[in-house]
Amino acid sequence: EPEVTQTPSHQVTQMGQEVILRCVPISNHLYFYWYRQILGQKVEFLVSFYNNEISEKSEIFDDQFSVERPDGSNFTLKIRSTKLEDSAMYFCASSEWGVAFFGQGTRLTVV
Amino acid sequence: GESVGLHLPTLSVQEGDNSIINCAYSNSASDYFIWYKQESGKGPQFIIDIRSNMDKRQGQRVTVLLNKTVKHLSLQIAATQPGDSAVYFCAENVNAGGTSYGKLTFGQGTILTVHP
Question: Which end of chain B is more exposed for a tag (fewer CB within 10 A), N or C?
Fold first, then answer.
């Protein structure tokens, strides 16, 4: 069964450093998303991406965040200068049209 | 110190019982709803979805009911099993012109614990 895959599963970084979280969406999907979940809290929308551009973003997705689809299979989230409060699980998701299917997440720990 | 997170509603049931998990959604313009299951350390896993032009949809062992009048969604799990133990989230979506599919607003979640 096709699935969304994310790497790495766990990333530890120092405050102020840049991180890139990687995702391979399901191959025939057209819509791609990043969500995050701070420990013990609900899942929050960050950004959606369609037709090679951002279609929507939340207030959380400020100038330190960017997304890219560098080739036909990968979808990345870059955090330019990490802060302690960026520590969370980051989930990539993709959809063909309706249901969004989620990856297993990358746990980002900023120290 | 700062609170770690939300105080989630919990539901404890015995194996074999039926479970009902409730969700109040916020946006009257939402037209698509999904239930997700999240096990510890994993991503949300799709269970069942329903569009706003329906009030009931059934899957395998699961039923979703939608009451748009009171903005309420419920998930019924028949013959609950220990493997159903997880956090269950409802999520809502407003399909604004087709580009917002997947922009989901999640509820706070309910912890379901199934005792053998």
Answer: N
